[in-house]
Design goal:
single chain, alpha/beta, Isopropylmalate Dehydrogenase, 2 domains, 10-stranded mixed β-sheet, two-stranded antiparallel ribbon, 11 helices, binds 3-isopropylmalic acid, binds manganese (II) ion
């Protein structure tokens, strides 16, 4: 009998989502066969397919299931042709889950794993930072609220003091638990903004610098987002934890993915004070769906982050260790576009095969 059981809501999503989630659940099954805890999974329908069938991307019952779970594992959602009357995508769950459940920290590790060839000339280990993206305000707070007409359209970027303080604290608290930047071992939080141009961004930076005073053991620095895009390519080893507004974090996390073998290797957590869900940072790649071609590592690594969040970091480490071993040994081989040789099931088998080795 397991000593403890966690309830996990599972949203398979659209496109490649179901096969990625199946892969991650296979890995979780293998892991929990040896751990003192168990997972009880509850399938929840959500995404563009759900919108087409039910008229909403997530039903009230689905939201209630996510609310009452200990954590949620979510596949990528959205289909390009499934749109709202205003032209934005209908199948996305960000507005419902991130804002609806107040999951204000979008935590996105960018790590160059052994055996993965970066497009940059860097050693494995040289890229290991975490983007902490503010997830409930910024420019995307305007989701569904843009105003205008056929001649002009405006979206508003919102920064509140409370929103800023909590995301900046999340970033510094994370830096305290990490071992610093690869280049120099210095615990560092980099604030990324556009404080030279926008008042909202000057405000974000001012609150960042105020909160930084509470963390004398962590270096605080600020960069403009344009310079940061260059720095993440030219000197990625300098960075440890990066905190930023939602749209900047959205863009920079894909840029970061491009330096570590592609977004197909990149997981993320959407974390609030009470609830959290874990997902790949990429989309549902409908053209790859159903062909056993998608690389499931982002989803498998998202499952590992979920285990950390549930308070089972040893199990999370087991998965991450196994992914590293499988990549380093050549049991998983990635193509330059981020897809995996052998396909989704072969990668899953390689990760399961390397567990505990
Ligand atoms: C992401 C995605 C979403 C976002 C989209 C699909 C709304 O790009 O999670 O990065 O911008 O947050
Ligand atoms: Mn994105």
């Amino acid at each position: 009998m397991p000593e403890r059981t966690y309830t996990v809501a599972v949203i398979a999503g659209d496109g490649i989502g179901p096969e990625l989630v199946e892969s991650a659940l296979t890995v979780l099954d293998a892991v929990t066969s040896t751990t003192p805890f168990a997972l009880r999974t509850v399938a929840v329908d959500g995404g563009a397919g759900t919108y087409q069938r039910e008229g909403a991307a997530l039903s009230d019952a689905g939201l209630a299931a996510v609310r009452s779970a200990d954590a949620t594992l979510k596949g990528p959602v959205g289909l390009p042709h499934v749109r709202m009357p205003d032209g934005t995508e209908a199948g996305l769950l960000g507005g419902i889950l991130r804002n609806g459940l107040d999951l204000y920290a979008n935590v996105r590790p960018v790590t160059l794993l052994p055996g993965v060839e970066s497009r940059l000339r860097v050693e494995p280990g040289a890229i290991d930072y975490v983007i902490v993206r503010e997830n409930t305000e910024g420019l995307y707070a305007s989701r569904g609220k843009g105003v205008g007409n056929e001649r002009a359209m405006a979206d508003t970027l919102l920064v509140t003091r409370a929103g800023c303080e909590r995301i900046v604290r999340h970033a510094f608290d994370l830096a305290l638990r990490r071992s610093g930047a690869p280049a120099d071992g210095v615990r560092r939080v980099t604030c990324v903004d556009k404080a030279n141009v926008l008042r909202s961004m000057y405000f974000f930076r001012s609150v960042f610098l105020e909160v930084a005073e509470e963390y004398p053991g962590v270096e605080a620095e600020c960069r403009y987002v344009d310079a940061m895009a260059q720095a993440l390519v030219m000197e990625p080893e300098h960075f440890d934890v990066v905190v930023t507004e939602s749209m900047f974090g959205d863009i920079l996390s894909d840029l970061g993915g491009g330096t570590v073998g592609g977004v197909a290797l990149c997981p993320g957590g959407n974390i609030g004070d009470a609830r959290a869900y874990f997902e790949p940072i990429h989309g549902s790649a409908p053209t790859l769906a159903g062909q056993d071609r998608a690389n499931p590592l982002s989803q498998i690594l998202a499952a590992a982050m979920m285990l950390d969040h549930l308070g089972e970091p040893a199990a999370g480490d087991l998965i991450r260790g196994s992914v590293r071993t499988a990549l380093a040994s050549g049991a998983i081989r990635l193509r330059r576009d981020g897809t995996a040789e052998g396909g989704t099931r072969a990668v899953t088998d390689a990760v399961v095969g390397a567990l505990g080795s």
